[in-house]
Amino acid sequence: MTLAPQEIVSLIGQGVKNAFKTSIQFLGIEIDRFNNTDIHPEYLTTVEVAKSLISGDRHVSLETHMKELRTRARQLASMDRTRTGATLSSIDATLAGYRFGKADSQRLDILVRLAEEDRPPLLMVEAKLGDGKLPGIIQDIDRILRLFDMYDSLGLLTNYKVYGAAVFHSMEEGNASATTTVAAQTLLTAVNAYLALPSVASGRSWLHTKAGLLQSCAVSQPVTGYVEDYDDGQSETIFAKKSFRFAPGLILLGNDPTIRHVSF
Asked: Is 161 or 132 the better-scoring residue by pLDDT?
């Protein structure tokens, strides 16, 4: 059983929601009374999103070395030589151009594979939710695209649907919270402009993308407080927490045209 793009969006959204709830629990009762939460530490996002993707017919791995995916891609390409006509030397020559980082040590946050091993991964996720800056988001997209390029260069995208996802968020407190959605939409506009660049889109006829805010995971809280009662019978309203807005977003990409029709 595979995953449909809309199901991927829903499961990742549920994972982000769970990460936010878990972060609140770690504040503790007294601290939560005064402090707003953000998803911290950031690896909560990776863990909760990964948990949401677990299923009996899917294997989910954390922090997979990308060079391991290169090794596995070589095995898959070798098995597929009858169809592609490739030789082992040509496969090795192609893969020689794919190193991941200066020390070839980059890792992928979440890797989802089907129980059947003779195919590329089903889903590759970068879940650095805390990076609300455009350069960080683009870096995550580029890392995923490079893995797609590797599989495509070996002809391994022809028969299988493969997906990638990058998760981010915008979080603002106080008076700026009203502008958070605008800030997140501005990020999305910049991301879509990047994905439409000739340097990104050309040569990748297989590439389909959709970016949006995960509406079901957005959290908006007004200023909150409590009433302090004094021994003299008077009381005072204490403003304990600032207003805030938490707006997570997702970039979904892959070689499945139906990606363009998902709802966030």
From this structure: 161
Say how far residue 179 (Cα) sits from the centre of its chain.
Answer: 23
Residue 193 lies in a domain: yes
Domain that holds residue 109: 5-220+247-261
- Give the Cα separation of 174 and 64 in Å (integer): 38
Residue 124 has pLDDT above 70, yes or no: yes
Residue 241 is assigned to a structural domain of this protein: no
Of 193, 154, 174, which is closest to residue 239 (Cα–Cα)? 174
How many domains would you assign to the chain? 1
Whether 234 is covered by a domain: the verdict is no
Calculate mean pLDDT across residues 233-255: 84
Long-range contacts from 87-96, C-beta under 8 angstroms, 24+ separation: 91/154, 94/153, 94/154, 95/70, 95/150, 95/154
Average pLDDT of every residue of the chain:
88
Q: How far apart are CA 165 and CA 252, in angstroms?
A: 5
β-pairing, 244-254 with 163-173?
antiparallel
